């Protein structure tokens, strides 16, 4: 049984990954400081509380277990906050990740799965965005991720550390079994915000701009179900464990959905009228962000299982109902 370290395994993506790894027969150790996650979201394996910027804690962790691979999800992800407070993002997303990589080198752990982002591409020069698209991030969040991707290339050349960087656009949905879902505080993702407006936990959803060059004038984005996302990570992990070289893949549905489409389908799924406020455009919001995922499908053998938007929203709505019930009883 191989042992996988999941850094940030108490968060949204990490917790779903832990569940999938356990189901696939791996031994899992979650390392998390719970700054954005919840220990009760870790559904099995060992849990170790700690910070990546604490080198002694990392060394103790790596001497306590023999890890066959590391998966890294412990990044700050809010673009706007990264512009206001870049130090926070460079310290956590860059410096702390370097601590992790250096510890891996010391303890001779080679396979590394990195949760990257479409923000490394900046303003799209064309869509769908493939792996060869120029990397010109326009905010500290995207820059921090792109810096790590470049560092990983150097660590491969110098130390033989093999990595797969998975760049995704909009993770969405929830565990089909209803055990896990999004619990960001504050919540910034569109689908849970829309569903909170449907459930009454939020007064309304704001549409930022309706004059974009898209069919209905609202921004168009690529949404990928959280389970499909984790499946791509699992396939990448298995390839690295079998001796594959370092690589990077874009992950997405390959089809974009507009803000208005999200709201319209959410109203059908929930059978509720969702209050909408029209707002001005936000600076830096491209009209279209859609991924080209053919490389992941060809090389990893990855195929999205829950590509239908109504299915994504249905699973998220099941989770929102659970969250609303928990709030009512709290």
Short account of what is shown:
It contains ten helices and 13 strands.
User: Total strand count, please?
Assistant: 13
Helix content: 40-55%
From the 3D coordinates, which CATH architecture of the largest domain would you assign?
A: 3-Layer(aba) Sandwich
Strand order of the largest sheet: 3-2-1-4-5-6-10
The unreliable regions are none
What is the mean pLDDT?
95
How many domains? The number is: 2
Kindly list the characteristics that best describe this protein:
4-stranded mixed β-sheet, 330 residues, alpha/beta, 13 strands, 2 domains, UDP-galactose 4-epimerase, domain 1, globular, Rossmann fold, 10 helices
Structure in words:
The protein is of the alpha/beta class. It has ten helices and 13 strands. The strands form three sheets. Strands 3-2-1-4-5-6-10 form a seven-stranded parallel sheet, sandwiched between helices. Helix 5 links the parallel strand 5 and strand 6 (162-168). Helix 6 packs parallel to helix 8 (259-270) and helix 6 packs across helix 10. The longest helix has 21 residues, at 86-106. It is globular and about 55 Å long. The relative contact order is 0.14. The mean pLDDT is 95.
Topology:
Layout: E1 3-7, H1 12-23, E2 27-32, E3 46-49, H2 55-64, E4 69-72, H3 79-84, H4 86-106, E5 111-117, H5 140-159, E6 162-168, E7 170-172, H6 190-199, E8 205-208, E9 220-225, H7 226-241, E10 247-251, E11 256-258, H8 259-270, E12 276-279, E13 288-289, H9 294-300, H10 309-329
Parallel strand pairs: 1-2, 1-4, 2-3, 4-5, 5-6, 6-10, 7-9, 8-12, 9-13
Antiparallel strand pairs: 9-11
Helix pairs in contact: 1-7, 2-4, 4-5, 6-8, 6-10, 8-10
């Amino acid at each position: 049984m191989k042992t996988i370290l999941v850094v940030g395994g108490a968060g949204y993506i990490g917790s779903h990954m832990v569940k999938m790894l356990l189901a696939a027969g791996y031994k899992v150790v979650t390392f998390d400081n719970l700054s954005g996650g919840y220990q009760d979201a870790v559904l099995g394996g060992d849990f170790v509380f700690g910070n990546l910027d604490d080198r002694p804690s990392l060394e103790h962790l790596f001497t306590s277990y023999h890890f066959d691979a590391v998966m890294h999800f412990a990044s700050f992800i809010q673009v706007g906050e990264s512009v206001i407070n870049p130090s926070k993002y460079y310290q956590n997303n860059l410096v702390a990740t370097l601590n992790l990589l250096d510890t891996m080198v010391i303890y001779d752990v080679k396979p590394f799965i990195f949760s990257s982002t479409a923000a490394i591409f900046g303003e799209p020069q064309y869509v769908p965005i493939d792996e060869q698209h120029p990397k010109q991030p326009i905010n500290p969040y995207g820059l921090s991720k792109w810096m790590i991707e470049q560092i990983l290339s150097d660590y491969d050349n110098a130390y033989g550390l093999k990595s797969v960087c998975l760049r995704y656009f909009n993770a969405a949905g929830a565990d089909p079994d209803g055990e896990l879902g999004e619990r960001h505080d504050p919540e910034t993702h569109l689908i849970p915000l829309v569903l909170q407006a449907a459930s009454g936990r939020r007064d309304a959803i704001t549409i930022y701009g309706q004059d974009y060059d898209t069919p209905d004038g609202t921004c168009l984005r690529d949404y990928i179900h959280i389970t499909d996302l984790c499946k791509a990570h699992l396939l990448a992990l298995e390839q690295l464990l079998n001796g594959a070289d370092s690589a990077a893949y874009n992950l997405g549905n390959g089809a974009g959905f507009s803000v208005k489409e999200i709201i319209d389908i959410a109203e059908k799924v929930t059978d509720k009228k969702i209050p909408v406020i029209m707002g001005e455009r936000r600076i830096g919001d491209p009209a279209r962000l859609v991924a080209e995922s053919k490389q992941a499908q060809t090389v990893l053998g990855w195929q999205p299982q829950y590509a239908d938007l109504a299915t994504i929203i249905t699973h998220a709505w099941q989770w929102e109902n659970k969250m609303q019930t928990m709030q009512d009883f709290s």
